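Q: Sequence in, structure out?
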Amino acid sequence: MTRHSRNITIRRFAKQDLGRFAAWVRPQIVAADLNLAVITDTHDRTQWSRTFYGPNGLWHTQEQHWLAGELPIDWRVHLGDLVDGSEPNFLTMWRLRNLVNDYVADSVPFVIAKGNHDDNDKFAERNARFSGSFHPWVFNDLVYQPVAAQPAGPHITRHGLQWFDTPTVRVITLNTSDVPVRWQHGRKNYDVKKTLAVTAGQLQELADILATAATREVLIMAHAPAMVHQNRSGLRFNGQQLHELLRAFNAHTAGTLTAAGGTDFGGLVQFDFTAAQGGIIAYLAGHWHEEVNYRVNGILYAMLNCSALMGRYHALTSNYNRRQDRLLNTPSEYAGYIVSIDAQRRRLHLFGYGAASRHRQFEY
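A: Exactly. Output:
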């Protein structure tokens, strides 16, 4: 059932474009088992650039809010890099707080993953002694606490893994910036922007949550993919191990997995999936700023394009977004998705708006 969204103020052209998208997609998702409104990589910041990131990251979040009110959406999702992390820490904290407040103000429950830009390390890289980088409490207080405070969930673990259930589907959102942070001689031990990782602790949390999925199929989401399509790890630490754990779940086996990365990331992970009957639907991620689909050992990885404007004339723009010729104050400025699961037909649908493919469909 849709919720009334007329009291949310968004830009006129966006309201017209998203209204047309809602009218098109509504009859295709009304009977689905689960519908998610998903955006990723908003890279919000105060300083303006007409061909690259800027304060429109917040606008894209508010526009997702409006769209969720027009459709039968069960959860709103942000897959990380809420902020660009390239400004003084007080400005980035302000931007981060504003984005989270939009989710808190909505009646739709939400999940927010951590991205590698969300600790403000991009700004700190340009400063002596890495000043301006966030301590872990910032993301914990501004993001994880509001996520955990919702009456309708999701569950959230010590390592930032989040999960919730429907009768037929379990959705698990991983923290691929699971980096133990310490300050050594006034400098951070890891640059989180450059360190995508999951620790053995989070892998154990994942193993325990997968083990109790019962008959449910499992949708995995995260900021970054565990694997890249060349069959290489997508994370600096334990991408391959994460992927192998998902393979073990599909095979319904039990055993021990060895996570790598020394005392910070490594350790033994015990798993027993013999009682589970479902499998992995897909692994959805952002981070790459493009769309691509590939399977590794039968597991589908589907990348979602960045919400943030990436104009074709900026040096850092991906080839995918350069071909889109994304322009400010047009529908190509943003990108977002409705992720819809039809459990009866065993189909995953990715409906896109803005600089995104209109429809991708996968069997599972």
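Residues 13-363 form a domain with the Purple Acid Phosphatase; chain A, domain 2 fold (CATH 3.60.21.10).
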